[in-house]
């Protein structure tokens, strides 16, 4: 961790203990434990949820449930988050993590392919969405998610700077980076939305549906 990161984390709201435990367990027990949103991004997700005040939130890519709990923390009572995870081997861990939090009751977990599950939601049924699943599916997930967002609603897309690889020469077999580049180009030309890339953590794109 750089000194500037240490400074930032010491001058923002503390990471809740339950999230600290979930993050630590993911890093210790899972090969890709660094996929959790973490302290800084987690506090941002909670804050922006409080700003937007959505009634219904959609998340694609639950992983261990860290980011879902951050959104849930920012939701007012009576609001709900639908989160989708394709890896059924993570289900027990996710449900256990949700059960540890006082905000877990605001979350509805769906296990399966996001494209199949999204088809069951009516159009304009969500106020906010967070895309953080397989990078090679970003364009598909975006196109299927956009109709589900109300006019004036928001989409957040994670990892859009992809470890800085978006400005480097891409290796021929680096499909994830190519997918991120394709998504960023597609979004830049999309006049259905307004968009801004925030250099937060690994790049977070904030999109508003016109």
TrEMBL record:
It comes from Proteiniphilum saccharofermentans. Keywords: Methyltransferase, S-adenosyl-L-methionine, Transferase. GO terms for biological process: methylation. The keyword tRNA processing does not apply. Signal peptide: none annotated. The keyword Methyltransferase applies. SUPFAM superfamilies: S-adenosyl-L-methionine-dependent methyltransferases. This is O-methyltransferase family protein. It holds the Pfam family Methyltransf_3. PANTHER family: CAFFEOYL-COA O-METHYLTRANSFERASE 3-RELATED, O-METHYLTRANSFERASE-RELATED. Gene3D superfamilies: Vaccinia Virus protein VP39.
């Amino acid at each position: 961790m750089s000194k500037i990161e240490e400074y930032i984390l010491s001058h923002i709201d503390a990471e809740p203990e339950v999230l600290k435990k979930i993050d630590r367990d993911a890093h210790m027990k899972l090969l890709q434990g660094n996929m959790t949103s973490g302290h800084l991004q987690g506090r941002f997700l909670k804050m922006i949820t409080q700003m937007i005040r959505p009634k219904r939130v959609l998340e694609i890519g639950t992983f261990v449930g860290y980011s879902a709990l951050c959104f849930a923390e920012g939701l007012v009572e009576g609001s709900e988050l639908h989160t989708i995870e394709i890896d059924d081997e993570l289900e027990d861990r996710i449900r256990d993590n949700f059960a540890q939090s006082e905000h877990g009751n605001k979350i509805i977990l769906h296990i399966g392919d996001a494209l199949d599950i999204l088809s069951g939601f009516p159009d304009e049924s969500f106020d906010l969405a967070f895309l953080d699943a397989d990078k090679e599916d970003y364009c598909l997930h975006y196109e299927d998610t956009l109709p589900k967002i109300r006019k004036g609603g928001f989409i957040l897309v994670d990892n859009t700077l992809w470890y800085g690889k978006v400005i480097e020469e891409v290796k021929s077999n680096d499909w994830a980076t190519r997918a991120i580049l394709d998504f960023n180009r597609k979004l830049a030309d999309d006049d259905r939305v307004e968009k801004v890339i925030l250099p937060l953590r690994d790049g977070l794109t904030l999109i508003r549906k016109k």
